[in-house]
Amino acid sequence: MTRLFVVTGAPGSGKSTVVPELVRLSPGNLVVMDMDELLDDNGRLLGIDIASPTAEPIWPAYNGLWLRITELIRRSGIPVLLLTPGLPSQLPEGRWLHLDCADAVRRKRLAQRGWAEDQIAEALADAAEIRKLVPRSVRGDVAPERCAKSILEWLRGERFGKTLSLWGRFRS
């Protein structure tokens, strides 16, 4: 079966912002999906606020749903790029890349969304954990097109067995 490619990032890293550029730059040869795309405008799935701590018991089922969706697409031979705030232990398939930004940038983005300070602190903690678990990363605090090109370059390297060191190249 065709591979699953996963880009993870804590809230505020730029995942949703880069999706349109990823779609634009890879027409017809890659299915790009953001886990948030199944949620309604209030962050709910089937009436449940998926980000709420009370929804934690259903998170494994939500992750399983996404793996099944990607399997259905990948069996046609088309690779899938899934953007998620998840961790490799939660979605144990695929090749992983981390979309990251400086904590100050993340804090500003989340504050602009109206997030409370405790929510921002949790997102910063999530970012620190992801940095440890998925060390290969690209910057999410650059122009969306540049970010998308970095992700697609990583994906091409993963598909064709090339090892790429993108973080250093796009750091400046």
Task: Report on the architecture of this protein.
With 172 residues, the protein is α/β, with parallel strands linked by helices. The strands form two sheets. Strands 2-5-1-6-7 form a five-stranded parallel β-sheet, sandwiched between helices. The protein has a two-stranded antiparallel ribbon with strand order 3-4. The chain is globular, with a radius of gyration of 16 Å.
In sequence order, what are the helices and strands, one letter per element?
Answer: EHEEEHEEHHEHH
Q: Strand sequence of the main sheet, in spatial order?
A: 2-5-1-6-7
Structural class assignment:
alpha/beta
Our estimate of the beta-strand percent is 15-25%
Biggest β-sheet description: 5 strands, parallel
* Rounded radius of gyration (Å): 16 Å
Q: Provide the residue-averaged pLDDT.
A: 87
Number of helices: 6
Poorly predicted sequence stretches spanning 5 or more consecutive residues: 163-172
Percent helix, as a range, is 40-55%
C-alpha termini separation: 37 Å
User: Total strand count, please?
Assistant: 7
Q: Please state the overall shape, judged from the principal axes of the Cα atoms.
A: globular
Organism: Kribbella sp. HUAS MG21
InterPro entries: P-loop_NTPase
Protein name: AAA family ATPase
Pfam families: AAA_18
Index terms:
44% helix; 7 strands; five-stranded parallel sheet; 172 residues; P-loop_NTPase; 6 helices; two-stranded antiparallel ribbon; alpha/beta; disordered C terminus; globular
Topology at a glance:
Layout: E1 4-8, H1 15-25, E2 31-34, E3 44-45, E4 48-49, H2 59-74, E5 80-84, E6 95-100, H3 103-112, H4 117-133, E7 137-139, H5 144-159, H6 166-170
Parallel strand pairs: 1-5, 1-6, 2-5, 6-7
Antiparallel strand pairs: 3-4
Helix pairs in contact: 1-5, 3-4
Organism: Kribbella sp. HUAS MG21
InterPro entries: P-loop_NTPase (IPR027417)
Protein name: AAA family ATPase
